[in-house]
Amino acid sequence: MDKLMLFFCILLSTQIFSESLVIEKKFFPPKSTDIYRYVPFDVPDDVVEIKVSYSYDRKKHTVDIGIFDSNGIGKKGFRGWSGGSKSEFIIAEHNATAAYLPGPIYSGTWQVILGLYQVEPSGVDIKIEVEFRTSSANSFAGPRFLWNADQVLESNTRWYKGDLHMHTNHSDGKQTIEDLVAYAKENQLDFLAMTEHNTCSHHFEIPTYANNEVLLILGEEVTTTQGHANVWGLPQGYWIDFRINRNNSINDIVRDAHSVGALFSINHPFGPCGGCYWNHSDLEDYDSIEIWNGYWDPTDYLALQMWDRLLQQGKRIPIVGSSDSHKKQDPIGKPTTHVYASNLSQKAILTAIKNGRAYITKDISPTAIEFSAYLENTNDSAMMGDILNVRKQQEVLFAIAISGCKQGKVNVICNGRKIISKNISQLKNGMLEFSHIIVKDSYFRLEVEDDYDMIAVTNPIYVDMK
């Protein structure tokens, strides 16, 4: 049963006329993967600021929130999503709570969107309060800078290191964009991809912290009930619609990302949090998999095994690793993705990731890995992500160089089997060379580990028979 209450008051002390609206609704558990429900309300003329709050029994249920303006519940009307991280938010023309988009307060019907993630069978009672203001003390929050996605911070071809998955106060993180950029500078990370849950509000704050040391990449973590995925390289303010329903499949979301030149990467496929486990079995044409999320644990090992099975099936999907940092205690750069790129720009970094020219280390340590394959008496060679074409029964030579890591062992994995395992302490100057006779299309990748932890994982070198 719905209950609607409307009342008016005049705030004499500030000369602000305020209209307040209270809506109470009851929702039952969704019967399909379309878990989103909409609560409409009308915005009068001359409103300059809207404040929305909601409440329910958080001990029993999990309900997320966002909002669309009178332009409808599509991309044009999207004004923000804070998930379950905020119980209230404000939107004004020049100011908005982090996770929401400032802009004109159009009159007409707006829609609160609720994500019914966990609702008990007896249903959840939700109270939504909306306050309209015709004059706002918070009407200006400083300039909004346009983003230059084509900036090149360094022109050298080399290994660049960074983090591709993190959260700030624009979703459920405890730090700010300024905090993360400062940490990256201090710890000599070269790039960061900012990936907030289901919103693009951070796109307009990021330019404030643009600098000549750390490349910042605009992203979004598409967060669904059947798994999460990062989208990197979005145009400023471009929102990826995360709502899975009959009109928007996971493959539609991938196509949307690709339509603007962005990459789509599966996150933590065996993550233990609610909705983190990847269960979109029909996914097509994605660009990479995050097999290492935060500190190495059994779920990362499961992701590594899943990826290796895909490689054995001939699906050459690159891998990355990311911190998924939400707070200072879980810092960015643990793990770190190292990318061999032609320069330090968004285009070069993302192109290298898509091409598999990357490896992962457990942190921002000096551990560095070189891995190459070549044919004797020829100029034919390959590095991580490359394909080396050979004849059947031809011998391929491989060279490994590991620096900044004195302990543990390096394992060579070929077609799902460990073919070499050597203690790093026994390698001369961290160098290892070996050869392999090719009898079928193959891949070769490296794992560096000690008795307690994974230290590094590389993308493969592929060897194909002509």
TrEMBL record:
It comes from the Bacteria. Gene3D superfamilies: Metal-dependent hydrolases. Residues 162-226 form the Polymerase/histidinol phosphatase N-terminal domain. GO terms for molecular function: 5'-3' DNA exonuclease activity; 5'-3' RNA exonuclease activity. NCBIfam families: CehA_McbA_metalo. This is Phosphoesterase. InterPro entries: PHP_dom, PHP_domain, Pol/His_phosphatase_N, Pol/histidinol_Pase-like.
